[in-house]
Design brief:
Blueprint (H helix, E strand, L loop, with lengths): L3 E4 L4 E3 H23 L4 H25 L2 H6 L14 H18 L4 H26 L6 E2 L1 H6 L4 H6 L1 E2 L2 E3 L2 H22 L7 H18 L7 E2 L2 E2 H18 L12 E7 L2 E7 L1
Antiparallel strand pairs: 1-2, 3-5, 4-5, 6-7, 8-9
Length: 278
């Protein structure tokens, strides 16, 4: 695949950067749209999103660099070359979560209210961003066969792009991207139609959903960040699953405050109906 999308001679724009940028734009749109319905202060949200993205990118890069420290010590200038890849999703998520927690507490905003909005945008951003790995020729898996990929209903252009070093490879980026899309659709549907969705359950679902697919995908990947003999991403993914389960089932809010949406009684003819409000 061609890594460079646009070449102006003095400036090159990489597909990797384009997909990450598109993912951010889509996530921001969804977050702002939902936050507006919940009447969250716009200035607070703009500052939160801008700084979280910045902190997230720095965290994702530092996480990757730390686990490849021997290489970057001898090539320090390359630490800044993020367009060549090397952004660890887990590092970005962890750094972003710490900042969101700090910023929300500073402004006396409930963290879980923001996270329940943010994770819906985050998961679709991850789905889009993974395609940058495809064009960069990275985040692929162990060897397989053309027949196996074809039987898995993987698009032909993806299969062709996974012919690397004389062998077909598992498109782990594709598996993760599709799983994130399914998770996004599930959260959108549940958020729209569920009558008893509680605060924290979307966040918990996200952590369990992404943690599960990332743990499984890491079994196939050949470029995992290692902690000794163990794949670091699998350790973090297991933590995500455990924390997500706890967040999903634990809710200590008062009864009237524990639901993601409020319901008000409204008389409609002889009957009383409950209207979902934000």
């Amino acid at each position: 695949m061609h890594r460079v999308a646009l070449d102006f001679g003095f400036l090159q724009i990489y597909w990797y950067s384009i997909f990450i940028f598109i993912g951010m734009i889509v996530a921001c749109f969804l977050i702002f749209k939902e936050a507006k319905k919940k009447e969250i202060d716009e200035e607070f949200l703009v500052n939160l999103i801008f700084n979280t993205i910045l902190i997230g990118i720095i965290g994702a890069r530092l996480y990757y660099v730390i686990f490849n420290l021997e290489y970057y010590i001898t090539n320090p200038i390359e630490i800044l070359e993020i367009w060549n890849g090397g952004l660890a999703v887990h590092g970005g998520i962890i750094a972003g979560l710490f900042f969101v927690n700090y910023y929300c507490k500073k402004h006396e905003v409930k963290v879980i209210d923001i996270l329940d909005i943010a994770v819906v945008g985050l998961i679709i951003a991850q789905a889009i961003g993974r395609w940058g790995n495809f064009f960069n020729g990275e985040a692929y898996g162990i060897k397989t066969t053309y027949e196996a990929l074809k039987s898995a209903w993987i698009p032909e252009f993806v299969i062709n792009g996974m012919y690397i070093d004389g062998s077909y490879r598992h498109p782990t980026f594709f598996y993760e991207s599709m799983w994130c899309i399914y998770g996004f659709l599930a959260m959108i549907i549940v958020r729209k139609y569920s009558n008893n969705l509680k605060k924290g359950q979307l966040t918990g679902f996200y952590l369990m959903w992404y943690g599960t697919i990332r743990f499984l995908v890491e079994m196939l990947r050949t470029d995992s960040l290692m902690l000794g003999p163990v794949k670091m991403a699998q350790i973090v993914s297991l933590l995500f699953i455990v924390i997500g389960l706890f967040v999903f089932i634990d809710n200590k809010s008062k009864t009237e405050e524990k639901y993601l949406y409020r319901y008000v009684e409204k008389k409609k003819g002889p009957a009383i109906v409950y209207i979902k409000t934000r």
